Amino acid sequence: MHVSSNQTSHTTSFRVCTSSSSSLKQEMFSSTDINVEKKQSKHLNFFQRNLNLNLNSIQNFISSHPLFLLLIAFFAVQLIIIAVTRNLPACFPDRKAKIATATADAAGDSNGFQAESDAEPEGYKCPFGQVYVYDLPSAFNDDLLSSDCTDLDPYNWQCGIAGNHGFGRPAAELVRILPENLAKSWYRTNQFSLELIFHRRILQHRCRTSEPESAAAFYIPFYGGLAVGKYLWVDDIAKRDRLCNEMLDWVTSQKFWKRSNGSDHFLTLGRITWDFRRLTDPKSKWGSSLLNSPAMRNVTRFIIEKADDDDHDVAVPYPTGFHPSSRRDLNRWMDFVRGRDRNRLFTFAGAARPTAQPAVRGILLNQCRNESETCWLVDCAAVPCASDASETMRALLGSEFCLQPSGDSSTRKSVFDCMVAGSVPVFFWNKTAYDQYEGFLPGDAESYSVYIDHELVKSGSLRVKEVLMKYSKQEIRKKREKVIETIPRLIYGDFNEGMLDFRDAFDVAIEGILERIKEEKEWVGFL
To answer: What pTM value is reported for the model?
Structure first.
C-alpha cells in the first residue's frame, strides 16, 4: 500500500504523544498499584488459610466418620442409575435360541432354518408379569371403523381395515401365482391396521388379566391412527385433536394411571410417528398433538416408524399380507421362497414422488427401466399396487434383490413385503430400517441386506446394477437364508384356530415391553 510523507509525519507525532502519555500514567498509578497488590495479597492469604482450615476439617471429619463417605458414594451411584435407566432405549431382543432343523415335516423335507416353536412348558407363569387391557369407551376404537366401504378403493386407506380383525379380505388374486395351500395365508392387509391386530391379539394373550390390581402393565386400546388419519387432509386441527385429547382425559383419570403417571402403560399407533407430532413451526399444520402432550411422556407406543430422539417410540414391522395360522404353514412358505428360481438380479416396485427424495426414487426407477433384462420394474403409477398384490409378488419372488428407497417418509411397508418374499433388501438410508426395527431385524446389517449411499445415486456416480453384480451366487444365497430366518419376527400370525405355535412380531414386541416395564419397576423398588 502507498503512504504519503504528510501521513508519516502525523503518525510519528501521534506515537510520541502516546508514549509520553503512557509514561505519565504509569508514574501516576504505580504507587496505587502497589497498595492494591498488597491488599490483594493479604486477602488471598486470608482465603487460602481459611480454605486450608476447611479442607483439614473435612478431612478430619471423614477420617472420624468413614461410614459418611460410603453413604455419599452410595447415593451418588443411585443418582447415576436413575439417570441411566430413565433414558434406556426400548430393546426387544429375540431371547430364545433359533432352532434350525433338517427334519421332515408334513410340508416336505426342509433344508434350512425352520420357525421356532412357541410351545410353553405346562404351568407357564408369565415371567414378566400380567397385562391389563382397559375397557375404553367404544368412541375410541370400535366406533372409528368404517363399515360401508370397499376393499377395491386404493385411495381410501380406511377400506379393508375393519375386515377380519385387521387382516382384510383374502388376497384371491394371489391364487394365480401361488400354490393353493400357501395362498390361503395371504390377505389384503392395510398397512395402517396395526392397532386392530394388536388389540385382538392382546385380548387373547395368555398373560392378560382381568384384575388390574395384579397387573404389571396396562394396555390402552386406542385406535389413534384411525382417529387422526381421517382428518389429516382436512384443515381442521380441532377435529384432528379432539379424540386424542378426550382419550387422554379418560385414561389419566384412572386409578392405575395415577399410581405410575403412565410409566407402565403402552398402546399401539398404526401410523408413522410424525402423524402424531405437530411440529413447533407455526406454519406447520400436519399431524395431531397426541405425542406432544405431557401426559404421553412416559407411555410406550408401538409404532410403524419411530422418532430418532424418543425412546418411548418402539418401531415394529408394518403388517404384510402374510398371516399363517401354524408353524407348519409358515415353514411351508419359508421352503417355498427358499427354492424359487429368481431370474432377475433386482426389482423396484414403486413410483416417483413429487416430494420425499424425488431425485433418488426417479433415478432408481429410470435405472430399472433401462435395465429390463436384469431389473423387474413394477411402476405403481401404472399398476394398482394398493389393491392388487399379484404384480408386486411376482417381481419379489423372481428377483434376487429388491430396492428400498425412502417413501413418503423414511420407512416403507415394501421392506417387509420384500423380505417375506425371500428377496434381499437394498437400502439407501439408515433410517429406512437399520435405525428403526431393533430386535426384529438382524443386528448385523451386512448379513441380510445391501447398503448403497443415496448421495452416490443422486450424483450419478453409481449404478445399482454394477454394485449388485459384484455379489457371488454363494454370497446372495447366504444373505437370503438370513432373510428367511428373520421372516417369523416380521409377520403377524392368524390364531383363528387357537394360540399360535410359533413366535411372531407381536410376541417379540409384547415380551419386550413387559420385560422392560418389569425391570424399570425393579430399579425403582431397589432405589
So the answer is: 0.78
